[in-house]
Design goal:
- By secondary structure, the protein is of the alpha/beta class.
- The protein has one domain (2-142): Rossmann fold (3-Layer(aba) Sandwich), CATH 3.40.50.10600.
- The protein is 38% helix and 27% strand.
- It contains 5 helices and 5 strands.
- The chain has helices spanning 23-39, 59-67, 86-95, 109-117, 133-142, and strands spanning 2-4, 12-21, 43-55, 74-81, 100-104.
- Strand 1 (2-4) and strand 2 form a beta hairpin.
């Protein structure tokens, strides 16, 4: 089962996963991830795992890796949960090979959000970036 989290940061996708994930979960998660990644130069992802038992059929993991074509746009991924065994972290690394990935225990959810949102106010680059004041000056000099 999945739940898309309501997050005020438009460039952060948040998904809570639990139990056995199905093809219906896949059909809902992939478009949400792709939409967020396509809408922003750089995006971030938050996954909360609550007793996830697996994905049926298992091939959907490979499909997910193939379907997420914009992995380079995700600079940070955090995975939160109490049962973050190695196969899950390996799968996240497969999905987001160019991203910084950090795991947190379930009781450290706020720390996970702090880390994920860190460094967001960098002028001109990254999620939530602010306009670069130097960019406007350069354009004016070119005229």
């Amino acid at each position: 089962m999945h739940e898309i989290l309501d997050i005020p940061d438009s460039n952060i996708v948040g998904i809570e996963l639990s139990g056995t994930l199905t093809e219906d979960d896949y059909e809902a998660i992939v478009p949400h991830l792709e939409h967020t990644m396509e809408a922003h130069t750089t995006s971030r992802a938050f996954f909360f795992l609550d007793d996830v038992e697996g994905w049926e059929p298992e091939e959907k993991w490979e499909d997910l890796a193939f379907d997420i074509r914009h992995v380079r746009t995700v600079d940070k991924v955090t995975v939160v949960g109490d049962d973050l065994w190695v196969p899950w972290t390996d799968k996240v690394e497969l999905l987001f090979p160019s991203s910084q990935i950090r795991t947190f225990e379930a009781d450290a959810r706020e720390d996970a959000w702090d880390w994920l949102r860190g460094d967001m106010d960098v002028p001109g680059i990254g999620p939530g970036s602010v306009p670069d004041p130097e960019a406007g000056a350069q354009e004016e000099d070119d005229e």
